[in-house]
Specification:
alpha/beta, two-stranded parallel sheet, 10 strands
Protein backbone atom coordinates (compact mmCIF):
# COMPACT_ATOMS: atom_id res chain seq x y z
CA UNK A 1 0.00 0.00 0.00
CA UNK A 2 1.55 3.29 -1.12
CA UNK A 3 1.04 6.71 0.46
CA UNK A 4 2.61 10.10 1.11
CA UNK A 5 2.98 11.53 4.62
CA UNK A 6 3.08 15.02 6.12
CA UNK A 7 4.10 15.56 9.74
CA UNK A 8 3.18 18.59 11.82
CA UNK A 9 5.75 20.50 13.82
CA UNK A 10 5.54 19.93 17.55
CA UNK A 11 8.92 19.89 19.28
CA UNK A 12 9.49 16.97 21.62
CA UNK A 13 5.92 15.78 21.03
CA UNK A 14 7.24 14.42 17.74
CA UNK A 15 8.00 11.22 19.66
CA UNK A 16 4.32 10.41 19.20
CA UNK A 17 4.94 10.08 15.47
CA UNK A 18 7.05 6.96 16.06
CA UNK A 19 3.99 5.19 17.48
CA UNK A 20 1.89 6.35 14.55
CA UNK A 21 4.50 5.15 12.05
CA UNK A 22 4.69 1.79 13.80
CA UNK A 23 0.93 1.34 13.38
CA UNK A 24 1.23 2.23 9.69
CA UNK A 25 4.08 -0.22 9.21
CA UNK A 26 1.88 -2.98 10.63
CA UNK A 27 -0.46 -2.56 7.64
CA UNK A 28 2.49 -2.40 5.23
CA UNK A 29 2.30 1.26 4.25
CA UNK A 30 5.08 2.12 1.79
CA UNK A 31 6.01 5.79 1.97
CA UNK A 32 6.51 7.46 -1.39
CA UNK A 33 7.07 11.10 -0.40
CA UNK A 34 7.51 12.66 3.02
CA UNK A 35 7.34 16.19 4.36
CA UNK A 36 7.29 18.01 7.65
CA UNK A 37 7.97 21.05 9.76
CA UNK A 38 10.17 21.23 12.89
CA UNK A 39 10.02 17.88 14.71
CA UNK A 40 7.93 16.60 11.82
CA UNK A 41 10.80 17.48 9.49
CA UNK A 42 13.17 15.36 11.58
CA UNK A 43 10.85 12.34 11.48
CA UNK A 44 10.23 12.77 7.74
CA UNK A 45 13.98 12.99 7.06
CA UNK A 46 14.73 9.82 9.03
CA UNK A 47 11.96 7.87 7.26
CA UNK A 48 13.09 9.14 3.86
CA UNK A 49 16.60 7.93 4.70
CA UNK A 50 15.42 4.39 5.37
CA UNK A 51 14.85 4.30 9.11
CA UNK A 52 12.00 2.20 10.52
CA UNK A 53 9.85 3.16 13.49
CA UNK A 54 11.61 0.84 15.94
CA UNK A 55 15.00 2.33 15.03
CA UNK A 56 13.78 5.90 15.43
CA UNK A 57 12.09 5.04 18.73
CA UNK A 58 15.31 3.55 20.08
CA UNK A 59 17.35 6.59 19.14
CA UNK A 60 14.77 8.90 20.70
CA UNK A 61 14.75 6.79 23.86
CA UNK A 62 18.51 7.29 24.26
CA UNK A 63 18.42 11.01 23.51
CA UNK A 64 19.28 13.55 26.20
CA UNK A 65 16.46 16.02 25.61
CA UNK A 66 17.93 18.59 27.96
CA UNK A 67 20.72 19.07 25.40
CA UNK A 68 18.23 20.68 23.03
CA UNK A 69 18.53 23.80 25.11
CA UNK A 70 21.96 24.71 23.80
CA UNK A 71 23.08 26.74 26.78
CA UNK A 72 25.71 29.44 26.59
CA UNK A 73 27.31 31.77 29.13
CA UNK A 74 24.23 34.01 29.05
CA UNK A 75 21.88 31.23 30.12
CA UNK A 76 23.67 30.97 33.46
CA UNK A 77 23.15 34.62 34.34
CA UNK A 78 20.12 34.96 36.66
CA UNK A 79 17.21 37.20 35.65
CA UNK A 80 18.80 39.09 32.76
CA UNK A 81 20.63 36.26 30.97
CA UNK A 82 17.75 35.45 28.60
CA UNK A 83 17.30 39.12 27.70
CA UNK A 84 21.01 39.47 26.97
CA UNK A 85 20.95 36.36 24.74
CA UNK A 86 17.93 37.70 22.88
CA UNK A 87 19.51 41.10 22.43
CA UNK A 88 22.82 39.81 21.13
CA UNK A 89 21.88 36.60 19.32
CA UNK A 90 18.11 37.02 18.68
CA UNK A 91 17.41 33.78 20.53
CA UNK A 92 17.81 32.36 24.04
CA UNK A 93 19.40 29.02 23.11
CA UNK A 94 21.56 27.51 20.38
CA UNK A 95 20.01 24.74 18.28
CA UNK A 96 23.10 22.92 17.02
CA UNK A 97 22.46 19.78 19.11
CA UNK A 98 19.59 18.81 16.79
CA UNK A 99 21.71 19.38 13.69
CA UNK A 100 24.57 17.23 15.03
CA UNK A 101 22.18 14.48 16.15
CA UNK A 102 20.47 14.36 12.77
CA UNK A 103 23.79 14.46 10.92
CA UNK A 104 25.02 11.42 12.84
CA UNK A 105 21.90 9.36 12.17
CA UNK A 106 21.62 10.29 8.51
CA UNK A 107 25.31 9.54 7.96
CA UNK A 108 24.72 6.00 9.22
CA UNK A 109 22.42 5.52 6.22
CA UNK A 110 24.85 7.19 3.82
CA UNK A 111 22.68 10.30 3.55
CA UNK A 112 24.07 13.82 3.81
CA UNK A 113 22.49 16.28 1.36
CA UNK A 114 19.16 16.32 -0.47
CA UNK A 115 21.04 15.04 -3.53
CA UNK A 116 21.51 11.70 -1.74
CA UNK A 117 17.76 11.04 -1.83
CA UNK A 118 15.52 10.32 -4.85
CA UNK A 119 14.10 13.52 -6.33
CA UNK A 120 10.90 14.58 -4.57
CA UNK A 121 11.33 12.08 -1.73
CA UNK A 122 11.63 14.65 1.07
CA UNK A 123 10.40 18.22 1.58
CA UNK A 124 11.16 20.38 4.62
CA UNK A 125 9.43 23.66 5.49
CA UNK A 126 11.30 26.67 6.91
CA UNK A 127 10.83 30.47 6.98
CA UNK A 128 13.18 33.04 5.50
CA UNK A 129 12.43 36.10 7.64
CA UNK A 130 14.98 38.21 5.74
CA UNK A 131 12.87 37.97 2.59
CA UNK A 132 9.50 37.23 4.16
CA UNK A 133 9.09 33.93 2.33
CA UNK A 134 8.21 30.35 3.06
CA UNK A 135 10.96 27.92 2.10
CA UNK A 136 10.30 24.44 0.79
CA UNK A 137 13.58 22.54 0.72
CA UNK A 138 14.99 21.44 -1.64
CA UNK A 139 12.58 23.01 -4.19
CA UNK A 140 13.42 26.62 -3.32
CA UNK A 141 17.20 26.24 -3.36
CA UNK A 142 17.20 27.47 -6.94
CA UNK A 143 16.13 30.90 -5.65
CA UNK A 144 19.44 31.05 -3.80
CA UNK A 145 21.45 29.79 -6.79
CA UNK A 146 22.00 26.49 -4.99
CA UNK A 147 21.39 22.83 -5.79
CA UNK A 148 20.21 19.90 -3.63
CA UNK A 149 23.87 18.95 -3.23
CA UNK A 150 24.59 22.26 -1.50
CA UNK A 151 22.39 21.82 1.58
CA UNK A 152 22.72 19.15 4.25
CA UNK A 153 19.42 17.67 5.35
CA UNK A 154 20.46 18.02 8.99
CA UNK A 155 20.90 21.77 8.49
CA UNK A 156 17.47 22.06 6.85
CA UNK A 157 15.91 20.22 9.82
CA UNK A 158 17.64 22.59 12.26
CA UNK A 159 16.34 25.57 10.29
CA UNK A 160 12.82 24.16 10.31
CA UNK A 161 12.95 23.60 14.08
CA UNK A 162 14.39 26.98 15.13
CA UNK A 163 11.47 28.38 17.13
CA UNK A 164 11.57 32.19 17.23
CA UNK A 165 12.99 33.77 20.40
CA UNK A 166 13.54 30.33 21.96
CA UNK A 167 16.32 29.40 19.49
CA UNK A 168 18.70 31.62 17.59
CA UNK A 169 17.86 32.11 13.91
CA UNK A 170 20.04 30.19 11.50
CA UNK A 171 22.19 32.71 9.65
CA UNK A 172 22.49 31.11 6.23
CA UNK A 173 25.12 32.25 3.77
CA UNK A 174 24.44 31.19 0.22
CA UNK A 175 27.01 30.70 -2.54
CA UNK A 176 26.85 34.34 -3.58
CA UNK A 177 27.47 35.32 0.08
CA UNK A 178 23.92 36.59 0.54
CA UNK A 179 22.93 36.33 4.19
CA UNK A 180 19.46 35.16 5.21
CA UNK A 181 17.93 34.59 8.63
CA UNK A 182 16.01 31.31 8.74
CA UNK A 183 13.50 30.30 11.42
CA UNK A 184 10.87 27.67 12.20
CA UNK A 185 8.73 26.59 9.27
CA UNK A 186 5.72 26.76 11.59
CA UNK A 187 5.70 30.53 11.21
CA UNK A 188 4.15 30.04 7.77
CA UNK A 189 2.88 26.46 7.74
CA UNK A 190 3.18 24.13 10.70
CA UNK A 191 1.07 21.44 9.02
CA UNK A 192 1.68 21.57 5.23
CA UNK A 193 -0.90 18.91 4.39
CA UNK A 194 -1.45 20.71 1.06
CA UNK A 195 2.10 20.06 -0.11
CA UNK A 196 1.45 16.98 -2.25
CA UNK A 197 -2.08 17.84 -3.36
CA UNK A 198 -2.81 17.54 -7.07
CA UNK A 199 -6.06 17.13 -9.00
CA UNK A 200 -5.39 13.48 -9.86
CA UNK A 201 -3.18 11.99 -7.11
CA UNK A 202 -1.50 8.63 -7.48
CA UNK A 203 -1.50 8.09 -3.70
CA UNK A 204 -3.41 9.45 -0.73
CA UNK A 205 -1.58 11.78 1.62
CA UNK A 206 -1.79 10.97 5.32
CA UNK A 207 -1.37 13.88 7.70
CA UNK A 208 -0.11 13.44 11.25
CA UNK A 209 -0.86 16.24 13.67
CA UNK A 210 -1.50 16.93 17.32
CA UNK A 211 -4.96 17.65 18.69
CA UNK A 212 -5.56 21.41 18.84
CA UNK A 213 -9.16 22.48 18.45
CA UNK A 214 -8.49 26.03 19.64
CA UNK A 215 -5.60 28.40 20.06
CA UNK A 216 -4.15 27.88 23.54
CA UNK A 217 -2.05 30.74 24.87
CA UNK A 218 -1.55 32.29 28.28
CA UNK A 219 -4.01 35.06 29.13
CA UNK A 220 -1.51 36.78 31.41
CA UNK A 221 1.57 38.31 29.77
CA UNK A 222 3.89 39.51 32.56
CA UNK A 223 7.16 39.90 30.63
CA UNK A 224 8.43 40.50 27.07
CA UNK A 225 9.49 36.83 26.92
CA UNK A 226 5.89 35.76 27.57
CA UNK A 227 4.72 38.24 24.94
CA UNK A 228 7.09 36.73 22.35
CA UNK A 229 5.96 33.22 23.24
CA UNK A 230 2.29 34.14 22.89
CA UNK A 231 2.88 35.79 19.53
CA UNK A 232 4.60 32.65 18.26
CA UNK A 233 2.00 30.26 19.68
CA UNK A 234 -0.80 32.27 18.11
CA UNK A 235 0.89 32.24 14.71
CA UNK A 236 1.82 28.58 14.99
CA UNK A 237 -1.62 27.35 15.98
CA UNK A 238 -4.03 29.71 14.25
CA UNK A 239 -2.56 29.67 10.72
CA UNK A 240 -3.14 26.03 9.91
CA UNK A 241 -6.40 25.70 11.87
CA UNK A 242 -7.97 27.85 9.14
CA UNK A 243 -7.05 25.19 6.58
CA UNK A 244 -8.25 22.12 8.48
CA UNK A 245 -11.50 21.31 6.69
CA UNK A 246 -13.50 18.12 6.37
CA UNK A 247 -11.48 16.88 3.37
CA UNK A 248 -8.28 17.44 5.31
CA UNK A 249 -9.56 15.82 8.52
CA UNK A 250 -10.58 12.72 6.61
CA UNK A 251 -6.94 11.91 5.85
CA UNK A 252 -5.39 13.24 9.08
CA UNK A 253 -4.45 11.23 12.16
CA UNK A 254 -4.95 13.48 15.18
CA UNK A 255 -2.80 12.56 18.15
CA UNK A 256 -3.52 13.72 21.73
CA UNK A 257 -0.40 14.73 23.69
CA UNK A 258 -1.97 15.59 27.04
CA UNK A 259 -0.22 18.39 28.90
CA UNK A 260 3.13 17.87 27.16
CA UNK A 261 4.18 20.95 25.20
CA UNK A 262 6.65 21.34 22.34
CA UNK A 263 9.42 22.64 24.64
CA UNK A 264 9.09 20.16 27.52
CA UNK A 265 12.69 19.01 27.29
CA UNK A 266 12.66 17.25 30.67
CA UNK A 267 10.71 14.23 29.48
CA UNK A 268 10.55 11.14 31.67
CA UNK A 269 10.41 7.61 30.31
CA UNK A 270 6.74 7.62 31.31
CA UNK A 271 6.17 10.69 29.12
CA UNK A 272 7.98 9.06 26.21
CA UNK A 273 5.88 5.89 26.50
CA UNK A 274 2.69 7.95 26.73
CA UNK A 275 3.51 9.83 23.52
CA UNK A 276 4.44 6.65 21.65
CA UNK A 277 1.26 4.86 22.75
CA UNK A 278 -0.89 7.88 21.94
CA UNK A 279 0.46 7.94 18.39
CA UNK A 280 0.05 4.18 18.00
CA UNK A 281 -3.51 3.99 19.37
CA UNK A 282 -4.72 7.07 17.48
CA UNK A 283 -3.44 5.62 14.21
CA UNK A 284 -4.89 2.16 14.88
CA UNK A 285 -8.28 3.77 15.54
CA UNK A 286 -8.00 5.84 12.36
CA UNK A 287 -7.23 2.75 10.30
CA UNK A 288 -10.33 0.90 11.54
CA UNK A 289 -12.58 3.22 9.54
CA UNK A 290 -10.17 4.15 6.75
CA UNK A 291 -11.18 3.00 3.27
CA UNK A 292 -8.11 3.40 1.11
CA UNK A 293 -9.72 2.76 -2.27
CA UNK A 294 -12.75 4.97 -1.65
CA UNK A 295 -10.55 7.82 -0.54
CA UNK A 296 -8.35 7.58 -3.63
CA UNK A 297 -11.42 7.72 -5.86
CA UNK A 298 -12.82 10.65 -3.91
CA UNK A 299 -9.60 12.62 -4.25
CA UNK A 300 -9.42 11.95 -7.97
CA UNK A 301 -12.82 13.64 -8.33
CA UNK A 302 -11.86 16.62 -6.19
CA UNK A 303 -9.87 19.65 -7.22
CA UNK A 304 -7.95 20.95 -4.21
Amino acid sequence: MKADAVFEGGGVRGIAFTGAIHAMEEVNIEWQRLAGTSAGAAIAALLASGYKSFEIREHLRKMDYSQFRGRTFFNHIPFIGSFLALSLHLGIYKNDYLENWMDTLLSEKGIHTFADLPEGKLKIIASDISNGQMLIFPDDLIRYKMTPNDLKISTAVMMSASMPFFFRPVIWKTKDQTKSYILDGGLLSNFPIWLFDVSAPRFPTFGFRFVKEEVNVGSVIPTPIHLFKNIFKTMLQAHDLRHINEKTKERTIQIPTGSITSTDFDLSQKDIEFLFNSGFESTKEFLTHWDFEKHKEKRKRTLF
